[in-house]
Design goal:
Length: about 120
């Protein structure tokens, strides 16, 4: 399929697909006329890329998941390199949650202080 069809089927734009290609995440074949041709496997890869980006992964984090899919696995997260990225991302998210919990607690304390001052 051509880039426009892949973009439509993946719910993205040709520009985004070219961006993924620049980062080595998708691999089109080139026709004699220079047009990009994609097989159905690339659609699966694009779906994986988009899901990972939506979950907050950076483009640099995605390569192990793509390589895992290209190796014939049913999912991009079942390979050791992907698992390492998942562990790192989980630790990052846990850190954010800890920070947010601290902020929430401070805000609650401040609101409680206001309530106590307003009560005679």
């Amino acid at each position: 399929m051509l880039i426009g069809e892949l973009a439509e089927r993946a719910g993205t734009s040709p520009r985004t697909l070219r961006y993924y290609e620049e980062h080595g995440l998708i691999r089109p074949r080139r026709d004699a006329n220079g047009y990009r041709q994609y097989d159905d496997g690339e659609l699966r890869v694009v779906h994986e890329i988009r899901a990972l980006l939506a979950d907050g992964f950076g483009v640099g984090d995605i390569r192990p998941f793509v390589e895992c899919l290209r190796a014939g696995n049913s999912s991009g997260h079942v390979c050791p390199d992907s698992a390492a990225v998942l562990r790192r991302k989980l630790a990052e998210v846990d850190g954010y949650l800890d920070q947010l919990t601290e902020v929430r607690d401070r805000l609650r304390d401040q609101l409680q202080e206001i309530r106590c001052q307003m009560t005679p």
